[in-house]
Please model this.
Amino acid sequence: MLVSLALMVLDHRQHHLDALRSALVVVTYPLQRLAQLPVAASEWVSQAFASRERLQQAADDLHEQNLLLKARLQKLEALEAENLQLRNLLDSSIKVGERVLIGELIAMDLDPYTQRVTINKGSTSGVYEGQPVLDADAVMGQVVQVTPFSAQVLLVTDPSHAIPIQVQRNGLRSIAVGTGRTNQLELPYLPINADIREGDVLITSGLGGTFPAGYPVATVQAVSRRAGEAFPYVLAAPRAHLDRAREVLLVWTVTPLQAIRAQEEARTAGPVQPAEPPRPAVAPPPTATAGAAPPKPAPAAPKKPSGHAQQTPPKPAAPRQAPAGGRP
Model:
């Protein structure tokens, strides 16, 4: 008993038994693994069957979603063809679809006063500052800093971020400002009598040129009109999963200069003319050699006298000759 207490005091004060303890842990590790083997085997079997059921359920859900999306795609193709016909009738240019690139979140800013994330795409992938970023549901934010292999994205809920929006129901335009909370946006610049209500969907207006028009941003949660104030208190919930999304979409939009050029090309390009039949080859005229006299012009054809022109006097008739019989 006294020896055990002495060893415990020495180990606690001077750590003389650390090497011995490490050696004992290495020796007893196989025995620990062998003792835990039945429990680990039972957990692995249960997880394997549970994972198989989850994977089967996920596969069934994805199959249903795929069928629904295919049906919607067929409708969208028909609408796109109809839109193209209407644009041709209106003699307007075709709006080019946006190009997108899929990125993945690799880090999140730990500062509680900022809403930023880092993605694994940078300037080597064509990412640029100010580029809009979306997830599968709505707008997430925009790129604010680019490195060769990564980029920082400022989320729409950051207090320093503002995005031009409009109400999808009536086209009312405003600006949505971040509040610092991942589930809330604020619309501070609406008049007190603005036609906005709970449940209205807010979409990008396209003003400013940063975000393309028509993408969903948020849904109005609360509208409060207080007496004596010039602006209503409007809060909206972002439709993007800012706290759960792992993949993002980087969008390339058409610049105003490209749009102007496309419109000018559409105006100048007329209907396609049928190809003309090939003409027979004509030999080129002979070229004058150095020192040779230039060819003389051909004599001009005599002009016919007009009714008012002065006529020349007729020539006298030639004298008649006597016939061969001698008779005059």
Remarks:
- The first helix runs from residue 2 to 14.
- The radius of gyration is 44 Å.
- The chain has a mean pLDDT of 76.
- The chain has three helices and twelve strands.
